[in-house]
Amino acid sequence: MATLKLEIVTPEAKVYSEDVDMVTLPGTEGEMGIYPMHIPLMTQVAAGEIIARKGGEETYLAVGDGFVEITGDKVAILTDMAIEADNIDEVKAEEARKRAEARLEEKLGDEESASVQAALAHSLAQLNVKRRRRGR
After folding, report:
1. pLDDT in tens, 1-39
2. Distance (Å, rounded) from C-alpha 127 to C-alpha 130?
């Protein structure tokens, strides 16, 4: 069976690099499922959950905003955050969400507001992935 090389890179490190059977990722227009031999595509990734399927196993990652380049045999994601579900600290993510929501209540400049919105999106993505996967 054909596979895809999935690479997820943040400014800090290469977070994930494996051959997978399928990738599900959060696009700005909705969720996308990518199989081997997909048509070439470059688009935005929205903060949310990536699911990498390999040999009947699934790996879940919380990701921030970014970009994805898809070819027939590779999915390359460049994002500002990527954390595997098992490595998410739910308490810290919840604290970050509360701090970001409190900051949004203040009068902020455009740049600072965008930064706080991104922090809120990161914490919500982490919480959603962790809480959805808790029962599995």
Report:
1. 789 999 999 999 999 999 999 999 999 889 999 999 999
2. 5
